[in-house]
Amino acid sequence: AACRVMRVTCLATCALNQWALDFDGNLARVKASIWQAKAKGARYRVGPELELPGYGCEDHFLEVDTIEHSWECLAQLLAGDDTDDILCDVGMPVIHGGVRYNCRVFVLNREILLIRPKLCLANDGNYRETRWFTAWQHPKKVEKFKLPSLISDVTKQTHVSFGDAALEFMDGSLGSETCEELFTPNAPHIQLALSGVEVISNGSGSHHQLRKLNQRVELIQSATAKGGGVYLYANQRGCDGGRLYYDGCACIAVNGEIVAQGEQFAVQEVEVVTAVVDLDTVVGFRGAFQSMSVQAAASEKQPMIEVPFSLCVTNPLGAAVSKPMPVRYHTPEEEIAMGPACWLWDYLRRSGASGYLLPLSGGADSSSTAALVGSMCQLATKAAAAGDACAIADIKRIAQLDDNASVPAAKELAARVLTTVYLGSENSSNETRGRSKTLADEVGSSHLDVKIDAVVAAIIAFFVTITRRAPKFKVDGGSDVENLALQNIQARVRMVLSFVLAQLMPWVNGRNGFFLVLGSANVDEGLRGYMTKYDCSSADINPIGGISKGDLRAFLRWGAKHLGYPSLASVEEAPPTAELEPIREDYVQTDEEDMGMTYDELGVYGRLRKIARLGPVEMFKRLLHEWKDRGTPAEIAAKVKRFFFFYSANRHKMTTLTPSYHAENYSPEDNRFDLRPFLYNVRWPWQFRKIDELAEKAMKER
Asked: What is the uppermost EC class here (predicted)?
C-alpha cells in the first residue's frame, strides 16, 4: 500500500515600500516580490493591504481613477506569466454593487479565484477607512461579481466570487483577514480556524509606533496559539507619502510560534520572507484540543471556493520544515535611530530635493535630528554596499554623482545631503556653538556658523522707527510682553533665514535643486505649546515631532555609543535652554523654568490626556492618587490647571505644526491624529471650579 504523502508547502509573505498613487512603481514592486517568492519555491504569496494604489491614498480612494488604475495594474499582472503556478494574494480597492470595498484579490494561473472584501475597517487614531470604504455586511456569504472588460479580455472570465469565503485546494485550504481584523475581538481567523482552514494570511498596512511591535506580534502568535494554523503577515514598509512610517516585520507563525520574521526597518524596497511548513502539524495541533473540536463541529462553516491546484510541494521529504525562532525586537532607542531615518530617506528620495538643511542649535532636539540624518546616511550606504541597486541609484542621483562614481561613505554622503547651520545671537553661549560644530564634524555635514544679530537689530530698529518705543528684555527692566516679543523676533528670524539658505545653498555650491528644512520640536513641546509660532519648529518636515523629550535623551545617550557621535553625550547632559534671553550672572534661561513644568510631568499629562482620555477633572483625580507623595492636593490642582491653561492657550499652534513622523500615541498632531478645537475658553471655569472643590475636600480629609 502506498504511504500517505506529507503535506509540506512553502509560503511567502513580503514587505513592500509602496507609494500612494505610484502605480508604475507599486506594480513593479509587487511583481518583484512574486518572482522572488517563486525563486524561493513558494506556492503562495501575500502582499500588503491596498498594495497596488498604496495604502495612503486617502481621499484619492474616492476617485474612480484610483480604482480604474488598480484594475489596470491587475490586468498587467494577469497578462504575463507572473501568476503562473503561484497563488498571489493582492490588495486593491474594488467597487461592487455601487459600494467601494477594501479587498484582497486571489489570482492564480492568469485567472481570478476570489475577491474577499474587508469585514472590519480601521477607524481610530491615524486611520479613516470608513471615510473611503464600507465594511462587507454579509459574513460567510458570497455573491457574483462582474469583472471589468479590461480584466475579462485578459482572463476570459465574466464573473468571479465576491465575499467572505476561503479557498480549498487539492491538498490544503487557505483564507485571509485584513489588518484591523486581526485586532478585533471576534476576528475572522477564529471562524476560519473553526472551519478547518489551515493557512490564514493578513495583508496589512500597519504603521510604526514606539514599543508597539510586540503587541502586533503577540496578536499574530495568539491567532494560532489557541486555534492552530499557519498565519502569514504582510505589511508595507516605508513612507508612502504622509506622516506614517509602515514598519514591515513581515512574519510567519505556525501554531503560535514564529518561524520566519523580516526586518522592521530597512531602505530596501522589496523583502520576501518564506517558510516551509507542514500542514499536518496544524491538524495534529487542533485534534489534540478537544474543546476546539466541539466548537468546530457546531460552527457554521466558511464558504469554500474549490481550486484544482496543489498548495503543497511535490517533494515533501526533501524540504526542510522551518523551525520556531525567537522574535527580534528593537529597543526604543534603536527604533528611534532607524524608523525616522528610513522615513527621512524615503521623503528625500521621493521629494526631488537634493538634501536637508537643519538649524543646529547644539541642544538635545536639533542634535537628535542631526543624528537621525547621520543614521539615514549610514543605513543608505550600508544597503548600497550590500548591492541594493535602488539604494545605489538613489544615492548617486541625490548626491549628484556620476554614474561611474563609487558609492560614498556615510560621512561623505552626509556632506552632500546635509547642511547644518548654527544661527547664533548675542544670547547664545560658546558651549552650544561648540557642541553644534563638534556634532556636525562627527556626522559629516556641511556646517555654517552664522550670527543673526544684524537682522534682529534691523527689525527692532524698524519697530522703533514706527512706534518710537524700544522694547527691553525682562532682565533689563522690560515687561513680560516685551520680553516675549524680543524672543520671538529671534526665533522667527531663524525660520526665515533657514528657508533662504535651504533655497540658495545648492546654488552657492554649484549644485542643482533645493534643500528641505528640518524642524526639531519634540512631542512634549507641541503638547505644551512651548514654541514660537513660525520659528524653527516651522519647517518642511520634522522627524522627532512625535517623540518625547525623555525618549530623545535616552536616544542621545545610545547614539553617542552606537552611531559613532560621542558628542551626543555632552548634549544630553546639558540643561535644555532656548537661549533667547540675555545671560546674566544671576540668570540663565532654561526650558523647564520657562514652562513652569518638567518634561517628565509633560509626558504624564500627555498620556493621561490622549491615551487615558482624561479631561481636567478626571486627570486631577488620577494624579491625586498617583502623586500623593509629590505635593498637597492644592499643589497638584495647580499643576493640572497650569497644564490645561497652556495646552489650550497654545492649541492654535498645532494647526500649523510641521508634518512630523508619528511615533507616539499621545501626539497632539492636529491634522490626522488628535482632533480638537483650537479656540478654547482657557479659564476652564466649570472644570477648574470642580478641581478646586475636590482639592479643598481632599485637604480637609488629610
From this structure: ligase
Q: Could you give the CA distance from residue 689 to residue 624 in angstroms, rounded to a whole number?
A: 16
End position of a domain, from candidates 531, 546, 572? 572
Listed residues 516, 547, 572: the one ending a domain? 572
Can you tell me the distance from the alpha carbon of 491 to that of 354, in angstroms, rounded to the nearest whole number? 26
Phi, psi dihedrals of residue 657, rounded to the nearest 5°: -65, 135
Please pick, among 10, 49, 251, 536, the residue that the annotation labels catalytic: 49
* 132, 158, 272, 454, 509 from 73: Cα distances, Å: 20, 18, 20, 57, 42
Return the CATH number at 338. Answer: 3.40.50.620
Quick check: is 161 catalytic?
Answer: no
Q: Are residues 597 and 561 part of one domain? A: no
Structural contact between residues 40 and 10, judged by C-beta atoms closer than 8 angstroms: yes
Residue 392 and residue 303 share a domain: no
- Kindly state whether residues 608 and 565 are assigned to the same domain: no
pLDDT of residue 193: 96
59 and 130 assigned to the same domain: yes
The length of the chain is: 702
3-state helix, strand, coil in the chain (%, to 5): 45, 20, 40
For position 687, what pLDDT does the model report? 97
- 541-585 confidence digits (pLDDT tens): 999 999 999 999 999 999 999 999 999 999 999 887 767 777 666
Domain presence at residue 357: yes
Choosing from 118, 610, 641, 653, the catalytic residue is: 118
CB 610 within 8 A of CB 665: yes
Q: Which 3 state secondary structure label does DSSP give 91?
A: strand
Q: Does residue 458 sit in helix, strand or coil?
A: helix
Catalytic-labelled residue, pool 173, 195, 354, 361: 361
Residue 361 known to be catalytic: yes
pTM above 0.90, yes or no: yes
- Indicate the DSSP class of residue 147: P
Domain assignment present for residue 341? The answer is: yes
Instruction: Tell me whether residue 701 is one of the annotated catalytic residues.
Output: no
State the Cα–Cα distance between residues 650 and 528, nearest whole angstrom.
Answer: 7
CB 315 within 8 A of CB 475: no
Q: How many domains does the chain have?
A: 3
In this predicted model, what pLDDT tens digit does every residue of 351-386 receive, in sequence order?
Answer: 999 999 999 999 999 999 999 999 999 999 999 999
333 φ/ψ sector (left φ>0, alpha ψ -120 to 50, else beta): alpha
User: Which domain covers residue 224, as residue numbers?
Assistant: 10-313
- Give 644: exposed, middle or buried? Use CB within 10 Å, 0-12, 13-18, 19+: buried
Burial 353-378 (b: 16+ CB within 10 A, else e): bbbbbbbbbbbbbbbbbbbbbbbbbb
Q: Is 49 a catalytic residue?
A: yes
The verdict on residue 5 lying in a domain is: no
Q: What is the CATH number of the domain that holds 172?
A: 3.60.110.10
